[in-house]
Amino acid sequence: MALRVGIVGVTGYVGEELVRILCHHPEVSEITAASKDFAGTALDRVYPHLRGHAEIEIMGMEDLGELIGRSDVVFLALPHRVSAPVAQQVIEKGKKVIDLAADFRLPEQKVYEEWYQVEHGAPALLKEAVYGLPELFREEIKGKRLVANPGCYPTSALLALAPLLKKRLVDRSSVIIDSKSGVSGAGRSLKLGSLFAECNENMKAYGLGTHRHTPEITHYAGVLAGEAVDIIFTPHLMPVSRGIISTVYAKLSSNLDSCSLRQIYQDFYADEEFVHVALEGEMPETKWVVGTNRCFLGAVVNREMAVVVSVIDNLVKGAAGQAVQNMNLLFELPENTGLQQLGLYP
Ligand SMILES: NC(=O)c1ccc[n+]([C@@H]2O[C@H](COP(=O)([O-])OP(=O)(O)OC[C@H]3O[C@@H](n4cnc5c(N)ncnc54)[C@H](OP(=O)(O)O)[C@@H]3O)[C@@H](O)[C@H]2O)c1
C-alpha cells in the first residue's frame, strides 16, 4: 500500500511526533503538512533532528484544499475548536480523518460546549466519530472515516480501569484517578506555567474537578462498565519532558488478592502487543515507555482497594503512536506497522 498522509498542525509536539513515526512507516509513501505560522518553511528548520528523515515544506492553512487532495488520511494535531471545521473539510472531500484534539471525543455537543466553553465547530459529525482506543474499541474503529484520538490522561486511566469495570470488580462510586504528566502535555506554545523556572524541581496539582479530560474519562468508563461511573480525577504537572503516570484506586466488591488481580490484568491484555502487565515485585516507571507506543500496568490489592499504576508516553501512546495504530486499523494494515521499532529509552 502507498498511503499518502497529511498532517495539519505539524509544528506542534504532536505533529512532530507524527512525522517521527510516519517517516519510517513502511506503507506511507508521502507526507504533506501544514501549520499556521510556519508556512513556506522547511520542517527541518523547525525540527533539525528530522533532517535526512523527512524533507517537508510546510504549507499554510490556506493550502488545506491541496493538502487534503494529496492525502488518503489527514491527521489533525490542532488545538480544540480549530480542529472540527478542518475535519469537516476532509470528510467532505471523501478522505479519512484522525483528530488528535478533543473535538470529537465527547458524543454530546452540550457536554463538549460546557467543558470546553466554545461552540462546537462541526456538530453534525459527532454521531459518526469513533473513540480511537484500539485495545478497548478495536471493532468499532475498523471501517470508520472519523476517529477521535483519545486524550493522553484518558488513555492511561482507561487502560488501567478497563479490567476492573468490564469484569465488575469494583464499586463504581469509588474510583479515584491520580495522574501526573510531563510538561510536553501542554504543547509547544509559550505559557508561563511551562517555563523551566516554573516547572523544574517543582510539582503541582491543577484543574481539580475542572480538568477537561474528566468528562471523557467518565463517559468511556461508563461505556466499559455498562452503567454510570463516578470519578474523581486529579492531574499533576511533573518536571520531566514526557511521560504520564496514573494511579487508579477503586474499592473492590469481591475478595481478591494481588496475585489474582495481576492475573486478571494479564489475561485481559494477553493478546495486546502494546499493553504489558508488570511482574510480581515490579511497579511501572515512565522510563519504561518514553518514546514507545507501550503502556505498562501494575496492579495490587491494598486494604480491599485495587490500586493500578499505568504509565505511557503522552506524545506516543497518548497521542501520535495511538493515532498511527488507528490509521493502521482504518487501512486494514497490521496494527503494529511502523510502531514496533520505536526505540526503548536507555
Ligand atoms: N501534547 C500532548 O501530550 C497531547 C496529547 C494528546 C493530545 N494532544 C492534543 O493534540 C493537539 C496538538 O497538541 P500539541 O501538544 O502538539 O500542541 P502545540 O505544540 O501547541 O501545537 C499546536 C499546532 O497547531 C497549530 N495551530 C495553533 N493554532 C492554530 C490555528 N488557530 N490555526 C491553525 N493551526 C494552529 C500550531 O501551528 P503553528 O506552530 O504554526 O502556530 C501547531 O502546529 C491538541 O489538541 C492537544 O490537546 C496533545
Question: Can you give me a brief rundown of this structure?
Answer:
By secondary structure, the chain is an alpha/beta fold. Helices cover 30% and strands 20% of the residues. The protein has helices at 13-22, 43-46, 64-69, 83-92, 109-116, 134-141, 152-166, 196-199, 213-225, 258-268, 316-330, and strands at 3-8, 28-34, 73-76, 96-99, 130-131, 146-148, 175-181, 204-205, 231-237, 244-251, 275-277, 295-302, 305-312.
Which structural traits does this protein have?
11 helices; single chain; globular; 6-stranded parallel sheet; alpha/beta; 346 residues; binds NADP nicotinamide-adenine-dinucleotide phosphate; Rossmann fold; 7-stranded mixed sheet; Dihydrodipicolinate Reductase, domain 2
